[in-house]
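Regression test case RT-17, inverse folding.

Input:
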């Protein structure tokens, strides 16, 4: 029939349509994924937090080896407190001198007993240079208590002084000042009005060996045209400072004269031992 209309194409079947669109969708997603990867690379993603490993050192076992750090040492008797009734026990005895000093034998005897000399310089006397005063007087101000004894014979003069301070802390401070002054004053003089004075020349002080802090030095006492060699020491014990001076009165060779006094380390040890006994007597 000439006017007939051709039948319409029914198009793809429902099954064909779903398959076509599915592949088209996959293709589009693949293209988009490739484009995204090229345009902006992905940063790595951490699925777990980053953890810095911690190493726990095992606790060391106790060791009997001594520590390299300096230990805090408490000197026996460092806090000893003497008074006017117990401080005299710090003085050596005639027997001590006879046992340790060759020049003490024979006939060393006490020449100036307790209570005869007061602390400090005679009225009108000064020390030159002034900053060396403590080298002569041990402390700069009158102490709460002071005493001195002097033994001697034709060959020896041995004087010992005990300066008592308010407490051990005050004594430690005074001892530091004394050591500083001694180091800074290798020579000083006592200037007396209208009479000749005296000059002391000292070698550098060395640290004494013993329980209590101490120093010892070789000294020369020059007065009235003569030079007398000897040794001088200072000792800190509790609330006191003990000072001793041994002088060789024999004339002649200096070394031979000093030999009559014995070893300065032995003299220092003699005073140290007497101080230890005095501390023990305090109880």
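Golden output:
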């Amino acid at each position: 029939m000439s006017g007939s209309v051709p039948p319409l194409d029914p198009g793809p079947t429902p099954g064909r349509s779903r398959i076509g669109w599915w592949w088209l969708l996959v293709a589009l997603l693949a293209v988009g994924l490739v484009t995204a990867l090229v345009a902006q690379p992905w940063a790595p993603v951490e699925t777990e937090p980053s953890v810095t490993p911690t190493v726990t050192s095992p606790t060391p076992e106790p060791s009997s080896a001594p520590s390299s750090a300096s230990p805090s040492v408490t000197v026996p008797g460092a806090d000893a407190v003497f008074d006017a009734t117990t401080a005299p026990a710090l003085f050596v005895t005639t027997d001590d001198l006879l046992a340790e000093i060759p020049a003490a034998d024979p006939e060393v005897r006490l020449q100036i007993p307790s209570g005869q000399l007061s602390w400090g310089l005679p009225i009108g006397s000064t020390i030159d240079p002034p900053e060396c005063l403590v080298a002569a007087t041990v402390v700069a101000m009158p102490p709460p208590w002071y005493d001195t004894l002097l033994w001697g014979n034709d060959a020896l003069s041995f004087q010992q002084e005990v300066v008592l301070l308010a407490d051990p802390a005050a004594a430690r401070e005074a001892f530091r000042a004394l050591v500083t002054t001694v180091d800074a004053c290798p020579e000083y003089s006592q200037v007396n009005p209208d009479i000749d004075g005296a000059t002391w020349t000292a070698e550098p002080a060395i640290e004494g060996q013993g329980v209590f802090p101490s120093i010892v030095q070789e000294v020369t006492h020059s007065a009235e045209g003569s030079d007398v060699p000897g040794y001088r020491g200072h000792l800190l014990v509790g609330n006191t400072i003990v000072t001793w001076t041994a002088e060789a009165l024999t004339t002649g060779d200096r070394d031979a004269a000093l030999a009559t006094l014995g070893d300065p380390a032995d003299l220092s040890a003699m005073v140290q031992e007497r101080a230890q006994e005095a501390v023990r007597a305090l109880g």
